[in-house]
């Protein structure tokens, strides 16, 4: 099935309850080829042009779920949502970025999905459409299963508030070259609310928000002045974020990577803050 519009796609989903939507296929076809999934039918979303662009709406950007990582990494998109462009630019090799989509990254909900901490920090929402209409759900609720994608629904759009302030995505893949994240950090400044929002990816099944660390560091920033903090504050912020997001399993830990992971998250968070405030 190759619907040419969102309406057609929603109708096709309702008429073929066993059909599985496929966008770039980079996750889905891997699962099919590995014998992990045997869909009764595939619903290709590649011809649904409404899902491939973006538009402005009430101070936010409404992004089509079919935007590819390559498209989001381009300069015009980077000027709009820099952290999402940075995340998209680090996804896999170019062949994957050219076809892999924002919607597929969200629905796959892999812990190391690079767009996920960015969307969590930006407090993005998604529009899910089905035969009964459309509903808006916070990305964090979708990912935690508080408000999951229902049978027959498609993820159509991602709504991202435009903050017009520095925002950063940093990722450690544990090696050089393209790699899935071992840890990632997205940090955004929200000057209108005098807030710092931060999300840590890949260290847990869903992105984690270190809310106390966010509040503490926001209180250290001179919002009306130069918006800087001294290096000691940045260092302490990194450690605060790491201790909030990577559990301390103690020196007897059977998980020897914990200390290294904490260090990695601490460095990423410190650098992310430094880059956002520079
Ligand atoms: C070699 C390789 C390297 C990779 N490296 C990275 C990496 O570094 N970082 C990273 O984040 N990811 C990585 N990925 C994973 C992958 O590329 C991304 O998750 C990609 O964004 C998935 O998008 P897609 O369009 O290919 O999804 P698909 O494979 O088409 O679909 C994935 C899932 O989402 C569902 N789906 C897709 N679109 C919709 C929609 N609009 N509505 C409802 N359901 C939908 C499908 O049914 C399926 O369950 C890598 C993959 C490969 C193969």
TrEMBL record:
Gene3D superfamilies: 3.30.465.10, CO dehydrogenase flavoprotein, C-terminal domain (3.30.390.50), Uridine Diphospho-n-acetylenolpyruvylglucosamine Reductase, domain 2 (3.30.43.10). It holds the Pfam family FAD_binding_5. GO terms for molecular function: FAD binding; oxidoreductase activity. Transmembrane segments: none annotated. Keywords: FAD, Flavoprotein, Oxidoreductase. InterPro entries: CO_DH_flav_C_dom_sf, Diverse_Substr_Oxidored, FAD-bd_PCMH, FAD-bd_PCMH-like_sf, FAD-bd_PCMH_sub1, FAD-bd_PCMH_sub2, Mopterin_DH_FAD-bd. The keyword Phosphoprotein does not apply. It comes from the Bacteria. Residues 1-165 form the FAD-binding PCMH-type domain. The keyword Oxidoreductase applies. This is CO or xanthine dehydrogenase, FAD-binding subunit.
